[in-house]
Specification:
It is built from 16 helices and eight strands. It is mostly helical and 420 residues long. Strands 1-2-3 form a three-stranded antiparallel beta sheet, covered by helices on one side. It has a three-stranded antiparallel beta sheet with strand order 4-5-8, with no helix packed on it. A two-stranded antiparallel ribbon has the order 6-7. Strand 1 and strand 2 form a beta hairpin. The radius of gyration is 31 Å and the shape is globular. The N and C termini lie far apart (79 Å). The relative contact order is 0.07.
Length: 420
């Protein structure tokens, strides 16, 4: 799918070509709309080029290497990025490149991959943790090393993979032994939240609904920017989170997880007010998106970030509100829910997390929910409130009745009258 900037009826837009079909997408009027259309066209064409390149991915990988000769790790990593980079998204590629250039290549250098030992990787991981690297950063870099070793083995350049998949678990165990925890989340208290909402309402009224919606639902920035009215069900009081808007255009939600969020009362009232205001002025707005920028078009990442920077700077100057990133609205939502003893499973489903990720990020809050196990005291023989019961009277059945089986015989006369 390729795109080209065009103009129709005085409005700038994109002509999108997919196979033999052409589709028109209106952007808007003015220089700002033209610039936006150019950026979207460039992003769409770049994505198409990457997809075409990904079909040929890996064809030239390790062509320079002669079997039986040393396999330097630095050159192998560089070759892997060049041939397999087009098969992933731009942000993922940037992360892989950072792992290789900043972590793996400076330590291993031109060391032969076939001579790599487990102790070398353990030493490298310990050094990374000593330098202050987070656990996830070191684990993901280890996965890159596992990947290139597996590819070299599959293509016949190595007799065996010197970096097995189990090395990832060893690196995680090193992190636990060194007490390297996941970075603690930053969340605002209620006074800071009310300050941010008040300043947004006074100075950036077009941004205030999106900020309040983020606090109430825990949605990410890109998910709020990409939310459309066809994903909102006011009758069932739910929204469908399917897409996310970012630097590289509109994509699926993070990790490809589509989820349904039940709306709290204030979030439902907020969407109803926006729908009523949109119906009174249908021509002044892009009717597809729920949250719009100042001029009635959909938000871009740059304009969103500039607006948020102004709000948090004013709040910090007014009463010292911490100038955190917008993603802290998500952490604040989770913190408030867990403080109220809401089910961790429900919170994880609303945020689109796994329950294990929730326990890692908010372990300090989940510990507060643990109650003393007093309800198990009744199972102990030393329970203080044990109920005293009268001993049963010992009765003995005559041996003649036991031998004849008369103790288990019941007649119709002995049955309850309701069954007769």
């Amino acid at each position: 799918m390729r795109a080209r900037v065009g103009q129709k009826r005085g409005k700038w837009g994109l002509r999108i070509y997919s196979g033999n079909r052409e589709k028109w997408r209106t952007i808007g009027e003015g220089d700002e709309a033209l610039e936006k259309a150019r950026k979207l066209a460039e992003a769409a064409n770049t994505r198409e080029d990457r997809q075409r390149q990904s079909r040929k991915v890996g064809n030239g990988f390790l062509e320079w290497h002669r079997r039986g000769s040393p396999l330097p790790i630095d050159r192998l990593l560089t070759d892997w990025l060049r041939h397999y980079g087009p098969s992933v998204g731009p942000s993922t590629f940037d992360r892989y490149r950072a792992h290789c250039k900043d972590q793996l290549i400076p330590f291993f250098g031109a060391k032969d991959l076939a001579r790599l030992q487990d102790t070398d990787i353990i030493t490298w991981a310990a050094r990374e943790y000593d330098q202050g690297r987070g656990r996830d950063t070191v684990v993901n870099a280890t996965r890159c090393l596992v990947r290139i070793a597996r590819l070299a083995h599959q293509k016949g350049h190595l007799e065996r993979s010197p970096v097995p998949q189990g090395m990832v678990r060893i690196v995680e165990q090193i992190a636990r032994a060194r007490d390297v925890n996941v970075r603690a989340v930053d969340a605002w208290d209620l006074d800071e939240v009310h300050t941010l909402l008040r300043i947004a309402e006074e100075t950036e009224p077009h941004f205030a609904p999106a900020l309040e919606f983020a606090f109430l639902t825990g949605c990410r920035r890109g998910e709020i920017m990409a939310l459309r009215w066809d994903q909102v069900d006011l009758e069932r009081r739910t929204i469908q989170v399917e897409k996310s808007e970012g630097r590289y255009g509109r994509r699926n939600a993070k990790w490809g997880k589509h989820r349904t969020i039940d709306l709290p009362r204030h979030a439902l009232d907020l969407l109803r007010r926006l729908a009523a205001d949109r119906s009174r002025r249908p021509d002044d707005h892009d009717s597809r998106y729920v949250f719009l920028a100042r001029r009635g078009g959909r938000w871009s990442v740059c304009s969103w970030q500039r607006t948020w920077t102004r709000i948090r700077s004013r709040a910090n100057a007014l009463n010292g509100t911490r100038p955190l990133d917008f993603h802290a609205t998500r952490h604040t939502h989770a913190t408030v829910c867990l403080d109220a003893s809401e089910s961790p499973t429900d919170v994880a489903n609303r945020l689109g997390h796994g329950i294990d990720v929730l326990h890692q990020r908010y372990a300090h809050l989940l510990r507060k929910q643990r109650q003393p196990l007093r309800h198990l005291d009744a199972l102990s023989t030393r329970a203080p409130n044990k109920v005293d019961r009268a001993p049963r009277e010992a009765t003995r059945t005559p041996a003649s009745e036991v031998r004849s089986g008369r103790t288990h015989q019941k007649t119709w006369a002995d049955a309850p009258k309701t069954l007769q």
